[in-house]
């Protein structure tokens, strides 16, 4: 909407909300609106000045996504202001907030303010602070924000910051992604529920949780540290009694830090989900007793570390899902008892390790989904009786292994989805009776194997989707007449 807005005599106005509006006035003067309590100019384009000098009763000010070419915004006397939102705004003037001590919510995300003094040390009522994608060249002081519940510093540039949250005992969410901190950091936050470090450099920061007494973090359920440099900070999780989810991605730690961290993690009894990616655990010993979900990707461990880790998983009765990618397990023996989901990709194991692993899978009655990619199973015999989903890609098996594997799939009444890519099945006979989804790509089979396979598909009443690529079916007949009414998708290339 465009045009002039005439409000000169509406001086008793308490609430003004303009959205997606273009103001043509040279000056948008609200300085006489002394009763105004709520002002929202979201997605408003202003060609002139915005004057708010006497609106000292304002409680809520929202200028999100607002374009203001010339602004003088001195909010230092706005003692009643509780909610201030400047998301996605560019300001060429100063932002002064010295006396807005009743602020509860301050959102300056994606905000460019050329000259800002952001001293929040006296903001005792502040509960929600969001400075995402913001550059702050002055100090960020939060020492007395004891009611702070949410702090978002994602993609925030903090040139000279002392981040001391030691008194913020009510903090529930702390997001610190792609942030470089050069001061000290303390986090004794009793109510913390989410702690996230992504692409962050904490090299010079002492972020030591070990000084806190047991049960100091009763609410912490999720901790994420990704692309984070911890230098020599010692991290212990045994004092985070209810920590359930932990994510480490591209985290750099010293040798001592790894040992302390893994030791405390091994004692974290309530941990349910653990994800470690692009981390060198070196000689640190990691033992997991009660975890339900484990995801390892490009993790380096010593021989002893692998043996301890695999032994603990083998004894973990609660383990339901295991994903291991780009890891050399060497001679470590991994035996899975009750797992439901297994995903292996580019994993190296010794001959004995493969045999023990495949034997345990064959005896795992709870296994529902199996995905193996870029793995040489050698002579290890893999038999699946109750699995529902099978995905093989670039898997090497011996002749006997193929026969045992295909025979077990042919007898698997629960099988619903089968995907085989870049595998030579040789003379192994594969017959499918109840499968719903079939995806074959670059699979080599003998003539007899093709005939048995195609005949079984022709009689498969549950078949809904069929995809066959890069296979020679010239010498066999594939008839889907009896099942075509059930099939939703067919792709043969």
How is this fold's topology laid out?
Blueprint: E1 2-3, E2 15-17, E3 22-23, E4 27-29, E5 38-40, E6 45-51, E7 60-62, E8 67-71, E9 73-74, E10 83-85, E11 90-96, E12 105-107, E13 112-116, E14 128-130, E15 135-136, E16 150-152, E17 157-158, E18 163-164, E19 173-177, E20 185-186, E21 194-198, E22 222-226, E23 245-249, H1 255-266, E24 273-282, E25 293-301, H2 303-314, E26 321-330, E27 341-349, H3 351-362, E28 369-378, E29 389-397, H4 399-410, E30 417-426, E31 437-445, H5 447-458, E32 465-469, E33 489-492
Parallel strand pairs: 1-3, 2-5, 3-6, 4-6, 5-7, 6-8, 7-10, 9-11, 10-12, 11-13, 12-14, 14-16, 15-17, 16-19, 18-20, 19-21, 21-22, 22-23, 23-24, 24-25, 25-26, 26-27, 27-28, 28-29, 29-30, 30-31, 31-32, 32-33
How is this structure best described in words?
It is a single-pass membrane protein. The protein has 493 residues and is mainly beta. The chain has 4 domains: 117 residues, Leucine-rich repeat, LRR (right-handed beta-alpha superhelix); 139 residues; 89 residues, no CATH class; 111 residues. The strands form 5 sheets. The chain has a 21-stranded parallel β-sheet. Strand 25, helix 2 and strand 26 form a beta-alpha-beta unit. The longest helix is centred in the middle third of the chain and has 12 residues. The radius of gyration is 31 Å and the shape is elongated. The chain starts with a strand and ends with a strand. The relative contact order is 0.04.
């Amino acid at each position: 909407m465009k045009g002039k807005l005439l409000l000169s005599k509406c001086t008793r106005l308490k609430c003004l909300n303009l959205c997606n509006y273009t103001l043509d006035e040279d000056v948008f003067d609200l300085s006489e609106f002394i009763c105004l309590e709520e002002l929202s100019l979201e997605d408003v384009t202003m060609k002139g000045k915005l004057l708010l000098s006497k609106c000292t009763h304002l409680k809520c000010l929202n200028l999100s996504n607002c374009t203001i070419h010339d602004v003088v915004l001195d909010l230092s006397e706005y003692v009643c202001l509780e909610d201030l939102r400047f998301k996605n705004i560019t300001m060429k003037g100063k932002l002064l907030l010295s006396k807005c001590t009743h602020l509860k919510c301050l959102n300056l995300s994606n905000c460019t303010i050329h000259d800002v003094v952001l001293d929040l040390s006296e903001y005792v009522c502040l509960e929600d602070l969001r400075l995402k994608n913001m550059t702050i060249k002055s100090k960020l002081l939060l020492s007395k924000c004891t009611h702070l519940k949410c702090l978002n510093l994602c993609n925030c540039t903090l040139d000279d910051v002392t981040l001391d949250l030691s008194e913020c005992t009510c903090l529930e969410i702390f997001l610190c992604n792609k942030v470089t901190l050069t001061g000290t950091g303390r986090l004794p936050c009793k109510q913390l529920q989410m702690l996230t470090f992504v692409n962050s450099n904490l090299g010079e920061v002492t972020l030591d949780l070990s000084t806190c007494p047991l049960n100091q973090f009763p609410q912490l359920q999720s901790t994420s540290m990704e692309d984070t440099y911890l230098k020599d900070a010692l991290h212990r999780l045994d004092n985070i009694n209810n920590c359930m989810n932990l994510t480490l991605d591209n985290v750099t730690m010293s040798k001592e830090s790894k040992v302390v961290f893994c030791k405390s993690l091994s004692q974290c009894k309530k941990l349910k989900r653990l994800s470690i990616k692009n981390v060198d655990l070196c000689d640190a010993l990691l033992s997991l007793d009660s975890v339900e979900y484990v995801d390892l990707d490009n993790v380096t461990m010593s021989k002893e570390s692998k043996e301890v880790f695999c032994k603990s998983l083998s004894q973990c009765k609660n383990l339901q899902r295991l994903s291991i990618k780009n890891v050399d397990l060497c001679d470590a023996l991994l035996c899975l008892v009750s797992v439901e989901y297994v995903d292996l990709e580019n994993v190296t194991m010794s001959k004995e390790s493969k045999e023990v692993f495949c034997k345990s899978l064959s005896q795992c009655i709870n296994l529902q989904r199996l995905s193996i990619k870029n793995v040489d199973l050698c002579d290890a015999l893999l038999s699946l009786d109750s699995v529902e989903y099978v995905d093989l890609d670039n898997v090497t098996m011996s002749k006997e292994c193929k026969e045992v594997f295909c025979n077990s799939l042919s007898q698997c009444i629960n099988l619903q989805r089968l995907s085989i890519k870049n595998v030579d099945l040789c003379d192994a006979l594969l017959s499918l009776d109840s499968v719903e989804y079939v995806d074959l790509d670059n699979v080599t089979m003998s003539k007899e194997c093709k005939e048995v396979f195609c005949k079984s598909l022709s009689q498969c009443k549950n078949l809904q989707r069929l995809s066959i690529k890069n296979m020679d079916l010239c010498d066999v007949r594939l008839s889907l007449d009896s099942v075509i009414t059930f099939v939703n998708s067919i792709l043969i290339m």
